[in-house]
Predict the structure.
Amino acid sequence: MALLQVDHMTHFFGGLRAVHDYNLSLEAGQIRGLIGPNGAGKTTVFNLLTGIHTPTEGHIHLDGQEITGKPPHRIASLGLARTFQNLCLWRHMTVLEHVKMARYSRISYGLIGAFFGTPKRHREEAAIEAKAHTLLQLVGIDHLADQVVVNLPYGAQRRVELARALAIEPKVLFLDEPTAGMNPEELVQMMEIIRRVHAEFDLAIYLIEHRLKMVMELCEVIQTLVFGEVVAEGPPEEIQTNPVVIEAYLGKEGVESSC
Amino acid sequence: MNTHSGETPAASGSLKKRLRRDLARVPLLAWLCGAMAAVVLERFCGPQLADLLGLPKVPVLFGFLIILKQPLLIPSTLVFLTLIYGLPILLLSRLLARPANRLAAFLLQAPLAVSVLVHLALFYGTLHLWSDLSAYRVLTLKLTLIAVMLTLSLNVINGYMGEFSCSHPAFMALGAYAASVMTLLFFVKDKQFGEALLPPALGPFMFPLVLVVAGAVAAIGALVIAIPSFRTRGDYLAIISLAFLFIVKSLIENLEWLGGPRGLSSQPNYASLPTVFAWAAACIWIINNFVRSTLGKALNAVRDDEIAADAMTVDTRRTKMVAFLFGAFWAGVAGGLFAHVLRYVNPGSFGRQNLAEVLAMVYFGGLNSVYGSIVGAVSLSLLGEALRPLELFKWIIIPLMLILVMIFRPTGLIAFREFDVRKLVQPKQNPDQEV
């Protein structure tokens, strides 16, 4: 069984079938892409896999363990981290606090430590902090550690999300449009960071992306989702020339230009 | 002044600047010494000076009461305040700044606790001497400290966690009644519960335990609210907790063995000033520890974006439950102290008015901030006392101030500020001191 194995996942929002018979086998260390036109259900797939919604049918296994229907924080602490499409940051907290927070499930000092400030707590908090700084250095925003996130530029906020997700020490990382709203320069930097992160932690990465350039360069396998169904799956070159994909993206007349 | 009118603004400007720069160097230790000196001065020279200035007696609460009752005495009150408090504090803390800085630095070489204890001892000494002058001051001080505990514990729920809870007076009532029943049952002979079950001499030593149990009772009450209301998101908590407040109040009113509407009285005199002070200090210390730990910061994460918190391994439901029970616990402890300070409780003390007061203190002082809670609780309880002569107008002035604060600083006076004890007690060395 693959590291992340999804079998016949289907989900209905009321009467609307958002995802239909979705299958995935994501191997360790693999980078996969999920593309599809707006409203195809890409983010819904992510939300289903990370436990925000429970699929109506189907099974999800992470590292051999069934995670279907588990609450998001359990799934996350089992090693499935994610970033969000529209930046879900905590607006009153600093960058450093964001990254530290993602270590929540590994904190062992408990409430006694929290209430009375035991030496164990101070040691553990110091260790978490050191770890957080390393991650911030990795994504290149360590100098912003004490800033409140709302004051940061957009690109930096994306990096905070990435560092925060990495602090979970995930086996699988989901990136929901990591370059949305970025300018070309930031885009190149982000791709560089993703490559670095992938190499350093030997992560399996699954990313939703609209910019085909990015998906084509990074991913080994790409799935194309249209109206909740996978219409094509394969290596980038194959997807690029697949007529079904082109039709889904560009329409039959090819009015819209991609990226 | 008139002859040099051209130079005055510049001169006064630089004077102001110098004063500010000088005062920025004064560490907390020096301020406390100054305050201590002022209090000692008042103790020895206060009555004579008051006599000299034609004041009926030493102004009990910084002259607020006198000013409102007899406006003609305003000038002499002001002179009194300047001579007894203003000048000695300013001069002495300025003079002591340098040695106090050195002392503070020396103390910090030992563990932080030593520094903190020295400061607390000095602070307590000042308060003790200040309040020794009249029973009214003692009572006001105790009630203010209890208000600080209440405000801070409510801030954990309404500020740090960002839910709106209305049941704080109910938790306080649970704590107050639980503690009263325990002390009356075990340590006092009274009409309601008969003979004391334990030797009364044990009482003062068991009182901390009594308060902890009182807090636990309040926390159990909180569990009743937390289980249904934290299943879902939204305004449920506000509604359920408001209902809980009324349920608890009418329950107590109708339970005859709890004294019914008459309440319970003749609680033993265990809540002395040092006891209340120690509990308030412990409350501030523990709550501050909690909200500054990553476990406590999880509250902020849940408040700012619950989905993101959940996705980052934070057990949101557990976090909310813990914080809610924790807040209720401290409200219960504060209630227990309250009952033993007044030595009388009745259901009427824990109603909507009490709720309004605590909420006002939290929102006035500032959300998500220990400083804010302290400032809010102290200023509103002192203001409440000071405006007492105005009677009904008090309830026009205080809400008006609250409205103004909400307009100009929507999150309160001192919101989102970390309470760093080390920063507070450390020496204030100015870099340009050597120049």
Chain A has two domains: 28-55+65-79+170-259, 89-168. Residues 81 and 165 of chain A are 5 Å apart (CA to CA).
